Amino acid sequence: MSATQEKFWEKPLQALTELEWEALCDGCGRCCLKKLTDSESEQIQFTRVVCRYFDERSSRCKCYGERTQLVPDCFNVKQMDIGTVNWMPDTCAYRLRFDGKPLFDWHPLVAGSRDKMQAAGISIGKRVISEEYVHPDGYEEHIIRWVKA
What we know:
The protein has 149 residues and is α+β, with helices and mostly antiparallel strands. It is built from five helices and five strands; from the N terminus they run H-E-E-E-E-H-H-H-H-E. It has a three-stranded mixed sheet with strand order 1-2-5, with no helix packed on it. The chain has a two-stranded antiparallel ribbon with strand order 3-4.
């Protein structure tokens, strides 16, 4: 990439093409974690319980194209008003770019690979349990502190 060529991930979100939008996702999987809302503080609490369609090896959704049909509470980030969403992880590239902030140096687009992201502990792989094995009433037992909104 030449010094004068714009890095697409520095463009405003609304200026991204479909392919650029999809490439902006670092594939951490944090948005696939089940979340709880504290009834008193209304604070979002992440659990280590992950959607049944999350593939830990690839850190991607097994049914990405059909996810919103198969999982009614799955979000399509492109169709959301990111400015009003209170659950997006503070490391999320979409949230960062919406706020006019740069991507972290570990982001695969900046670093050139997923190695720095893995070393930084951003990916949820090998730290989660599928919702298939946890009763919804038991999610509170799986609240984590290593993901913040």
